[in-house]
Amino acid sequence: MNCVHCGKPLPEGSRRDRADCNRNCSALTSYYRRKAGIPPPPRWQHPALTSDNPALRSAAAHAKQLGETNGWSPSLVRCTMDGLTAVLEDRPPGTPVKLTEVRTRIPRHASSHRVAEVLADLHLLEDDSSSAIRSWIEARAGELPASFAGDVRAWLLVLLNGDSRAKPRSHTCLYVYFGCVRPLLENWATTRGHLREITVADITAALSPLRGWQRRNAIAALRSLFR
């Protein structure tokens, strides 16, 4: 893209609606346009708003409406439309988008939360994150010795789904807790045949080298596991 006044290339990283290379060129462009009686050009709008894909066009319009209603910044609205374009542009209208696809396909500058919010409002979002975390649980538990795998799998599922005594935990909590206890479990498995054989002395010895946040996280994870 070149400046509409002087013809020089626009600086890299410029806004997509930028037409002049600097303020001086912008002022001169406006001056000569007014002098010639030429009306100002129409304001730039995101290409998704005029897309040939009706699903993308509808989603972009809904993102714009949400932005106006909830006070989103113009930049956030544009980035949300970028994310919608990435997942809807080549998709047949009416085909739902998986949540894991939203998180992996949209550009880094786009908000997966806002893109998912727009898709959910239009009934175009399929939340497959639960199946993904369940697959992760099966894979991680399967890597442990067989005598420990069943109890650890049951523990992670309780963290995921909750029970009569506890609310469901976030996926991040599962990742952190398992990351804390995994090396301890693998070490205990060399001398113990079951979790019920782990003693207070074993836990104290395992925690003694840890300091700071690593120790706090490990204590919380072990309390959860043995509870």
Give keywords.
single chain, 227 residues, mainly alpha, two-stranded parallel ribbon, 10 helices, 59% helix
Structure summarized in a few sentences:
The chain is mainly alpha-helical. The protein has helices at 23-35, 54-70, 74-88, 99-105, 112-121, 129-142, 146-161, 171-188, 200-207, 212-226, and strands spanning 97-98, 125-126.
Could you characterize what this model shows?
By secondary structure, the chain is mainly α. The protein has helices at about 25-35, 55-70, 75-90, 100-105, 110-120, 130-140, 145-160, 170-190, 200-205, 210-225; strands at about 95-100, 125. The chain has a two-stranded parallel ribbon.
Average pLDDT figure: 86
Number of helical stretches of at least 4 residues: 10
Shape: elongated
Tell me the distance between the termini. Answer: 63 Å
- The share of residues in extended strands comes to under 5%
Strand order of the largest sheet: 1-2
Q: What structural class is derived from the secondary structure elements? A: mainly alpha
State the share of residues found in helices, binned by percent.
55-70%
Main sheet characteristics: 2 strands, parallel
C-alpha Rg (nearest Å): 27 Å
Order of helices and strands: HHHEHHEHHHHH
Number of strands: 2
Low-confidence region ranges:
none
Assembly type: single chain
